[in-house]
Specification:
Elements: E1 4-9, H1 14-18, H2 31-44, E2 51-54, H3 58-66, E3 73-75, H4 92-98, H5 104-107, H6 115-129, E4 135-140, H7 142-152, E5 170-176, E6 179-187
Parallel strand pairs: 1-4, 2-3, 2-4
Antiparallel strand pairs: 1-5, 5-6
């Protein structure tokens, strides 16, 4: 069998709606986020998984549960979200008011993780994952997932800024001709991309 990593971002939370940076804050899914997780589970029903791993934070573990895979899950600490440190709970607009050029993927977070630290964590996880076989489900978070994908294909953390992830999205990392590749990225219901009239 060939290794395929199915990466799922957790469902919607109040802070994903408001645009607040949500690192280690252990907040719950909204009712809509729970619905998103169930819909994600319907999509995942097409596959069987050899391994199921989840971040320890409840928004990821609850997404896994509602997607119907919690009976197989193992907690994987390296799937936890980027530690936002002093920027936890703040919006990008608030941070840019004092640091106009700030970019988490280049500058990291004071009091939290720096790009080299999250890169090391992603690389460590990838090393362990590549020893597995078959379909592996990973329930995690936006910023860490973007870093994981960048590192999977050999790019620096800063390139992760170009890999957006919607709530309850599905992405697949695999191989082409024995080289790491992104097979599917940020697959989410198209309604998430609809423009809403003010």
């Amino acid at each position: 069998m060939t290794l395929r990593l199915f990466f799922m971002r957790h469902g919607e939370t109040e802070w994903s709606l408001s645009g607040q940076h949500t690192g280690r804050a252990d907040i719950a899914l909204t009712a809509n986020g729970e619905d998103e997780a169930r819909q994600l589970g319907e999509r995942l029903g097409l596959f069987s998984f050899n391994h199921v791993l989840s971040s320890p934070l409840r928004r990821a573990s609850r997404t896994c549960e509602l997607a119907g895979l919690s009976q197989y899950v193992k907690v994987e600490k390296d799937l936890i979200e980027w530690d936002d440190g002093d920027y936890e709970g703040r919006t990008s607009a608030e941070i840019h008011a004092t640091r106009p050029e700030w970019n988490v993927f280049r500058d990291g977070c004071p009091g939290g993780e720096m790009p080299d630290e999250i890169s090391t964590r992603a690389d460590r996880l990838i090393e362990r994952l590549t020893k597995l076989d078959g379909n592996v489900a990973l329930f995690s978070h936006s910023h860490f997932g973007r870093v994981l994908a960048a590192r999977w294909i050999g790019l620096a953390v800063e390139h992760a800024q170009s890999l957006l992830l919607s709530t309850a999205s599905l992405s697949i990392l695999g191989y082409e001709h024995d080289r790491p590749a992104i097979a599917l990225w940020n697959s989410a219901p198209l309604s998430q991309f609809a423009e809403v009239d003010p």
